[in-house]
């Protein structure tokens, strides 16, 4: 009997080792420039590692929630609803405050993005649920920060989600206070927690990155329409603060008076990870100050922050389209303005199979960024 148990245990270890080798083999294979490309013949942008949609049931729930609104043409030749707000879907969790920990990458990838994606597939309604159906940033943060209260890159968080998975806030509560002197941030030694986490591994993740601004914006909106939440690292300390306005002769929109970023100080360091939850093509800011709507003055992405409800618009922000993509001066070919996100990279993820038995190891990792972004993980602040 002991021999049989030893053999079974060895088999499990072998499978685990093979899976780890496969994950890192895929990682090495993916270490090439990840650039958005245009598919021949269609003018349709997709990531070099194509971001999939969620499953059919999840998409059905998204459409039932109102994402099948009338479509409008875009500069990229695609058609989208005028607005999409995935934070209004039942699967979107309550707003989160990271407190004084530099854990923003864990919050955006694990709490917001993974909770939302798995919630869509499992039919979660967060208004009726508890922390047993929300994933804990503490698990991933403690796996990636080396025991110290330090910011980590988004790519490290996604690699940890692909290999280790995630546990719920009920199983591992989050405490937003730095460790006392001489203590370190670490997860409890619990086989039960490790087993729970493995069930919630992501199948794959990737990035959208493009040099063409219009196609880049179109791809981000396409993924949001599919129900994805997206993440990126940004120099949030350099965000200006403007106000959504009403164009002359038009009725006030429901977001008039809300705060919006239209420009980012190029001298500010990249230091915070945020989540994109939607967009609105009708948001207007008078960028040139002439009092009239002009080209490029409409449209913004809706951002949820990890600083609780105190931030800007009760926890949300608007990020104007004009501030998102980097622009190159046509006359000189030099960079005229950097984009809102580090390396113009925005991340998506796809959760694994609901049935661990059906998980396909060959899809454990499908895309990683070229380099580590500098994310300091700014603590919560008003």
Radius of gyration: 21 Å
This entry's quaternary arrangement is single chain
Would you count the extended β strands for me? 15
> What's the overall geometry?
globular
The level-1 CATH class = Alpha Beta
The CATH homology group name? Cysteine proteinases
Count every helix, treating DSSP H or I runs of 4 or more residues as helices: 8
- The string of secondary-structure elements, in order, is HEEHEEEHHHHEHEEEEEEHEEE
At CATH level 2, the architecture is: Alpha-Beta Complex
Beta-strand residue percentage: 15-25%
Structural classification: alpha+beta
Short synopsis of the structure:
The protein is of the alpha+beta class and 382 residues long.
Structure, explained:
- It is a single chain.
- The chain is α+β, with helices and mostly antiparallel strands.
- The protein has a single domain (about 30-365), classed as Cysteine proteinases (Cathepsin B, Chain A, Alpha-Beta Complex), CATH 3.90.70.10.
- About 25% of the residues lie in helices and about 20% in strands.
- A hairpin with a 5-residue loop joins strand 3 and strand 4 (about 80).
- Helix 3 (about 105-120) crosses helix 4, helix 3 (about 105-120) packs across helix 5 and helix 4 (about 135-145) packs across helix 5.
- The chain is globular.
């Amino acid at each position: 009997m002991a021999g049989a148990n030893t053999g079974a245990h060895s088999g499990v270890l072998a499978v685990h080792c093979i899976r780890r080798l496969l994950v890192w083999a895929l990682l090495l294979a993916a270490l090439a420039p990840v650039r958005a490309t245009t598919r021949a013949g269609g003018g349709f942008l997709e990531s070099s590692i194509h971001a999939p949609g969620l499953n059919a049931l999840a998409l059905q729930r998204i459409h039932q929630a109102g994402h099948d609104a009338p479509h409008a043409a875009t500069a990229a030749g695609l058609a989208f609803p005028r607005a999409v707000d995935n934070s209004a879907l039942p699967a979107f969790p309550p707003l989160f405050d990271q407190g004084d920990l530099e854990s923003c990458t864990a919050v955006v990838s694990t709490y917001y993005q993974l909770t939302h994606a798995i919630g869509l597939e499992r039919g979660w309604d967060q208004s009726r649920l508890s922390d047993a159906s929300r994933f804990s940033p503490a698990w991933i943060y403690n796996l990636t920060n080396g025991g110290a209260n330090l910011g980590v890159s988004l790519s490290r968080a996604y690699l940890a989600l692909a290999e280790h998975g995630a546990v719920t806030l009920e199983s591992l509560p989050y405490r937003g206070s730095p460790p006392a002197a001489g203590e370190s941030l670490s997860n409890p030694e619990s086989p039960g927690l490790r087993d729970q986490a493995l069930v919630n591994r992501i199948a794959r993740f990737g990035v959208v990155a493009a040099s063409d601004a219009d196609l880049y914006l179109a791809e981000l909106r396409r993924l949001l329409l599919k129900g994805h939440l997206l993440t990126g690292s940004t120099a949030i300390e350099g965000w200006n603060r403007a106000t959504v306005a009403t164009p002359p002769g038009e009725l006030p929109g429901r977001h008039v008076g809300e705060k919006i970023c239209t420009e980012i100080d190029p001298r500010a360091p990249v230091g915070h990870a945020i989540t994109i939850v939607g967009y609105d093509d009708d948001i207007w800011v008078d960028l040139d100050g002439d009092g009239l709507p002009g080209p490029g003055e409409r449209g913004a992405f809706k951002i949820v922050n990890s600083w609780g409800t105190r931030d800007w618009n009760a926890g949300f922000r608007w990020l104007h389209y004009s501030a998102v993509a980097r622009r190159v001066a046509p006359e000189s070919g030099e960079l005229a303005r950097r984009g809102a996100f580090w390396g113009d990279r925005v991340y998506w993820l796809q959760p694994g199979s609901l049935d661990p038995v059906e998980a396909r190891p060959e899809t454990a990792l499908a895309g990683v960024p070229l380099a580590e972004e500098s994310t300091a993980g700014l603590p919560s602040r008003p």
